[in-house]
Amino acid sequence: MKILVVGGGGREHAIIRKLKENKDVAEIYALPGNGGIASDAVCVDIGAKDIEKIVAFAVENKIDYAVVAPDDPLVLGCVDALEEKGIPCFGPRANAAIIEGSKVFSKELMKKYSIPTAACEVFSDVDSALEYVATAPIPTVIKADGLALGKGVIIAFTREEAVAAVKSMMCDKAFGKSGERIVIEEFLEGPEVSVLSFTDGKTVVPMISSMDHKRIGENDTGLNTGGMGTIAPNPYYTDAVAAECMEKIFLPTINAMNAEGRPFKGCLYFGLMITKDGPKVIEYNCRFGDPETQVVLPLLESDLLTVMQAVTNEKLAETEVKFSEKNACCVIMASKGYPESYGKGYPIDIPQSVKENVYVAGAAIKDGQVVTSGGRVLGVTAIGETLEKAINASYDMVKEIKFENSYYRRDIGARALKAPEVN
Ligand code: AMP
Ligand code: GLY
Question: Is the pLDDT of residue 172 over 90?
Answer without folding.
Answer: no
